[in-house]
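Homework help board

Subject: predicted structure for assignment chain

Our instructor gave us this sequence and asked us to write out the predicted structure in token form, then describe one feature. I got the tokens but I'm not sure how to describe them. Can anyone check?
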Amino acid sequence: MKKDAILFSACKYTKSRLNINDLPGGKYDVAAFGKRLRQIDFEVSIKEDAIRDEYIPALRENAKNSPNDAVHIVYFSGHGGHLNGHNYIFPSDFGVIYDSSHSIDEAGINIEDILNVYSGHGRLILILDACRSDVGTSRGYFSEITSFENVYIAYGTQFQDTSTGVNNAISWFTEGICDEILTPNIDIDALFTKVRRNVCLKHRAQIPSSVNALLESVVLHEDTSVDDIDTKVYAFVEKYGNTYNDKYGYFHGDDLIFIDAAQYFDISLLDTIWKYHKVSNSLFSKKGVKLPLLSEVESKIVTFLAFTKGINWFSCDENYTWYYNGRQIRMGEIPPLPPSMQQKLPEPEKAIVVEMKCSCEKGMMTIAINLPNGCEFFVGHSKVVVRSGKAILPAVNKSDTITIDSRVFSEDENIKRILGEKSRNLTGPLIKYNPIYGNHICHSFCM
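My token output:
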């Protein structure tokens, strides 16, 4: 999982008629928070006293080409406020721009512009150590901004209140985050609940509030600690694994070594494989190799689906007893699908009801399909590309049965955005869902 953070501070404000006071504590905020984030394996970029024109380009560069499971942190320490339902942060040149434009929109950074940058590019944790008071005469009061999908916003204070900075020291809110963020395996909402409690009880001057629009739990610091039984399982598999592969072949040997390890240690097969991968990932991590680490639930679901999809060796009877080639085995508890693997609805106004019509002439099959040009998918073992609303497959006999059981993919970032995460925007009778790789085309027909 990609984890990165970009930290902004506005410590020195350019002189202007607004006479905005400097915030010298901001440099301590980004330094302390950056150190903590690096301790939990975030890639951190710090931009002190950035001017307005630097913000959005830096964020776009940070967001581009991000995988769907990426976690981005954007942090700001400086002045801020709201006007007519919009929330703003004020970069270092805010006053100078406002002197000439008399526009908050032109001088400040609208929070919604930041959310737009990260839409469709993973999960965004937006942390704002800034005031939230009215910067003008608003037409009525507005509480929270509407957050985008997969966004968590942590404010340093409540609406219509100030966030306290400390001259030449870390602020109360950022200090609270740094005190708690090293806690392993804590959900982001639980983390900021602890921050809120600590700041409120310690200083009794502000209550940091949050807006949660995440569709699944996000943990900033995952720690899969290895215990003695994990190590023993790993040692057993490593010691005898090659012998099993030599005797039974790679695929069956790989299954049987884990089945025998499960029996030897009197644990389930799913637990055995999870324990092995925990140790393996830990060893690679110590060597500086960063591997994507699934949660325990995700790992067990992926393992179970791999065992049972299209493989005749694993079977289950009416009593839910599992067998491997007729040998009774202890599969273990099959977890329910976690939110991260559940099917997501299409994004608003982006649904594509997939339709196709096939024809065959002179040994060539033409599939008329309403996917974007450049999309690719497999027909049997042949990869085809959609061009001008058609995909052409050569060498087809009229008696052939054609099977399409394939996800839709593309290297083009624009097409990826159209399809959505795991092709969530594809829908209709021809689309099926797989918890691992998402929506895919599933259709058979005779020519």
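Reply (TA_rk): Your tokens look well-formed. For the description, you could write something like this. The chain has a mean pLDDT of 88. That's the kind of observation they're looking for.
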